Amino acid sequence: MKKIKKGDPMQDSKTLLSPFVTNTDENIFVLQNLPEVIKGALFSRYSRSRLGLRELLQKEFLQNSEAGFETTAVDFSHVNVKKATDFYDRILDGYGDDSVAELGGAHLALEEVSMLATKILEDARIGGSPLEKSTRYIPFDDKKDGCFRYYKDPNILASSFKDDYIATMDHLFETYSSLIRPMTERIENLYPLEEGTSEAAWRTSVRALVFDCLRGLLPAATLTNLGFYGNGRFFESLLMKMRLNPLAEVQQIAQKGHQELSKVIPSFVKRADQQHRHFGAYREYATQLSDFVQSLKRPDKKEEMTGFSVRLVKDSSQGCENQLLAALLYEESSETFSDLLRFVESMEENGKRKLLVELGQLRKNRRHKSPRALEHVDFTFEITADFGCYRDLHRHRILTQERQKLTCELGYTLPQEIEGTEMEAIYKSALLKAKNFHDELVKILPVEAQYSVPMAYNIRWYVKINLRALQWMAELRSTPQGHPEYRKVAQQMALRVIEAHPLFEPLLGFMDYSEHAIGRLAQEERSLKKKGQIHGS
């Protein structure tokens, strides 16, 4: 056993890392031979660091004496591994028992992939946990080999739009970079450091707000880092879907991801191989399904709507309050659901209201989850908001959502801190230049054209969500430290529900409907107090 010392000049980086990653050169790799606690810590740090996962592993664990990390010879029994492989191959291939594919998992790192691709990967909801590099804490103004970090799609580069694409993307990044300093000065003047406030917390909050305001200039082609922990069943399904995606980038990610995962959990992703009969059958089904949906008739007229909106387009049938209360009584009763429903329907309205108020008052903070009875009530919303906002809300798993293609047709969001300043014209000009380019590119490459759309432009999507999941999401996303745009979405979703069903207002008791100028400040001060870097009463 040899303890790794920080700064040991004898250690070669690749030699040091090779036991713990499936490769030391490619942008897609899998962690191996590491305790779960270290893998979890690594992925947690991933979203707030410029460093890649391997660099973080080396710097903060392998060469950090405080981490107390020691290398040990990893001794796997060849016989046991073979038996396990044979077992999973037999069950998955021979019997189709998909549930056993959830008994093994892996950490997959994807670096230098576009923000557009991350949304396709994160569409997979069950069995995987993604974590993505933040636009709030990390600036995207750095270059690699003299170039800004954005994806160059091969179909675009092979077209007559190649030069215009590069010029348009460069202009967006140049504008983003040039506005960081004046935007910082603007925010510091708008929200000066107050007496008694931690300067460190204030500066972190100012920096976050600056990046929040400017992220709308970043195109969907922006390269980012993404970490996934998932079970085998999740990765198999994800890889199959990615292989059939029309974007070349996503297909390449699928190929590399399958290659790397096969080194760690080969039995679990075997059926995602392009030559496997299961993948062949899935490809045939997916093709037929796509053809069927595209053949469906569309309405002749379409409702012209641009700009921000949150609409409740469908909710549970009348009397859903009765369904909720009957379900609440069910577990501790011996009656049938029908008997309980008739009992609740016979109650006076004030009696029902009193029960829901008392139920809401039992929760002492938003982390106290309500009983599953709230899942008997569901709502469908149609939301139009900027792509940056969609990216933030997309990560919630216990709901159903589908988005339309990312375009420049639905308008864009202009941060209020930019309005009325010299930066407004510069910001708008960059967005208009991107729109003009997109509107031409979309005529010949409608799917790939999405890469050119800045995050400030709106996207339309629907969300089907039950009341219990809405309670969690809306209360979480309305907190002061949240981004202003998704706070508005969360607030509007809650208000639409309360308008339709006033009895549910007590169940959304931790909503924050106020406006906060520099919302991260209180959160940053709390974080610093926990670390002992500032002292509080």
Secondary structure tally, helices? 20
Strand content: 5-15%
Query: What level of helicity do the residues show?
Result: 40-55%
Number of beta-strand segments: 12
The end-to-end span amounts to 46 Å
CATH class of the largest domain: Alpha Beta
- Write down the Rg: 26 Å
Q: Give the low-confidence spans.
A: 72-81
Look up the CATH topology of the largest domain. Answer: Gyrase A, domain 2
Notes on the structure:
With 537 residues, the protein is an alpha+beta fold. The chain has three domains: 2-135 and 222-294, 2-Layer Sandwich (Gyrase A, domain 2), CATH 3.30.1360; 146-217 and 416-445, no CATH class; 309-406 and 458-530, Gyrase A, domain 2. The protein contains 20 helices and twelve strands. The protein has helices at residues 13-17, 36-46, 53-62, 78-95, 115-122, 154-157, 162-190, 199-214, 232-243, 248-261, 266-269, 277-295, 320-330, 337-345, 349-361, 387-393, 422-441, 467-477, 484-500, 520-530, and strands at residues 2-3, 28-30, 70-71, 105-114, 128-132, 143-144, 147-148, 223-231, 309-315, 378-386, 400-403, 458-466. A four-stranded antiparallel beta sheet has the order 2-4-8-5, sandwiched between helices. A hairpin with a 2-residue loop joins β6 (143-144) and β7 (147-148). α7 runs antiparallel to α17 and α9 (232-243) runs antiparallel to α10. The chain is globular, with a radius of gyration of 26 Å.
Name the features:
single chain; 537 residues; Gyrase A, domain 2; four-stranded antiparallel β-sheet; 20 helices
